[in-house]
Design a protein that fits this description.
By secondary structure, the chain is an all-alpha fold. The protein has six helices and no strands.
Length: 169
């Protein structure tokens, strides 16, 4: 029960705020409403947006699940996984949770045909391009040592590998 509460709190504070609360505020602030595009171009963007939303949701849910079941921690920096996880989407990309959230944000922007949501997505990309290498990765390196350094040599931060990487036993 305590672990469930830890995860719900981490989800509510981080991805829910970034991917739901702020986009709802943006939509209200700028009068953005979901309407079907009136020509092929906008409808195509909306279909792409739905695909990005779906892929982003799969990555985010898989990341949270693996952190809970294998990592014995949450996605929150104040309650991180205690065990180094290199399964599922982590075999392809080092930051599938952030990749998932970024895909969700761009998916929202495209599905809503909303430039303000696109700006929010770009801001999140920039923030993570700064935060992850300067703060998160050094903490992971200190916590997991050589296994994390080896992982970084084989798995890129945001661009997925074509084939899964598996550490040597």
């Amino acid at each position: 029960m305590i672990m469930l509460l830890r995860h719900l709190l981490a989800i509510a504070i981080l991805p829910f705020t970034v991917a739901v609360l702020v986009p709802v505020w943006i939509a209200r602030r700028y009068g953005v409403a979901l309407t079907l595009g009136r020509s092929v171009g906008p409808v195509f963007l909306q279909v792409v947006g739905l695909a990005l939303l779906s892929l982003g949701l799969v990555l985010a849910v898989a990341s949270v699940w693996l952190f809970a079941t294998e990592g014995r921690g949450t996605l929150a920096p104040w309650d991180p996984p205690r065990v180094f996880v290199v399964r599922g989407p982590y075999q392809f990309v080092r930051n599938p949770m952030i990749s998932g959230i970024i895909l969700l944000l761009f998916g929202e922007a495209f599905a809503l045909l909303s430039p303000p949501h696109g700006v929010w997505a770009i801001c999140c990309v920039i923030l993570n391009l700064i935060y992850i290498p300067l703060i998160e990765e050094p903490q992971l390196e200190r916590r997991f040592g050589d296994s994390y350094r080896e992982y970084c040599r084989h798995v890129r931060r945001f661009i997925p590998r074509l084939r899964p990487w598996r550490p040597l036993p």
